[in-house]
Design a protein that fits this description.
345 residues, alpha+beta, 2 domains, 6-stranded antiparallel sheet, elongated
Length: 345
Amino acid sequence: MSALQIALAVFGVGFLIAWHELGHYAAARLLGMRVLRFSIGFGPRLWGFRRGEIDYQLAALPLGGFVQIKGMSSLEPGALDDPKSFVNAARWRRWLVLAAGPGANYVLAALLFFIYLWAWPSPVAGPAVELQQVIPGGPAAAAGLQSGDVVVAFDGKPLDDGDFRGRILASQGAPIALTVQRGGVEQVITVTAEKQIGGGWRIGVAPQLLYPRTTLPRTILASMELCRIKSADTLAALGALLRWEDDVKMSSIVAIVDDLKDQAERGARYFLAMLAWISVVLGLFNLLPVPSLDGIKMLFLTVEGTIRRDIHAGFQVWVNGIGMIALLGLMMVLIVRDTFERLAS
């Protein structure tokens, strides 16, 4: 079973990357651009095939993927002469092609959350929170909370708004009485949040919001709300990372696959929920104005549309090139760190 779960984790991450690139690919084809290559991974080609003028490949470095469209830069030879090149398309068309990758990840995340909510609804009439992970050494673990516990009430009050994190923050370190369902039996466990370095409060859990099974339209809206919540949580974690808080760190693809494998061992619901969360993170991260990613290119196009002139192509190539080198370097450092951590444990 361990080999199967590892394979599921690797396939899951690969599928999310492929799905992201498929968003770019589909948008480019629909908007009449010339696609040259669809690649999962970077570096040397391991396997692939050619159909028409498009080369489909699997590359050696599984650190992402890309869709090569003719004329991504006006400096590319022949870019300005090809009417189907990226650079000759209207700015709004280019912007949509770039946004289609992150958009595809959000659509997939909403679909996965929909399946999750429909298959595993809240055990009570209103929203509840399942603790999918309890961090060892944190306040929740010290209080006796366990992974898989379902919180159905907060200080005796139902979680009608589903804002579990908001209530933790509002506690300001005062004891919190959580009504928990465990094995079909309810019990009250008191936990006290600890203050974080950059402000705020935490009890050391990974909560997953559950909604009662309801109509199809409401479940769709709930899945979209989960995407919003996970995006907000990810931005908060990014802020904590930038503040160098001790309990937050960036993970490599090695750690992500390992965590996904652990969730697969726990069961389909946990694997599905984490896959949806990773899809949100992938979509959100690509929307940020980080050099070499979709967000910075979308920002350049937005600025160009505002000022009504092109930003120098050489400057864009320089920014994205430096960003790509920095990102690949960071990924390699994180991979080495996470690999040694797992070998040592």
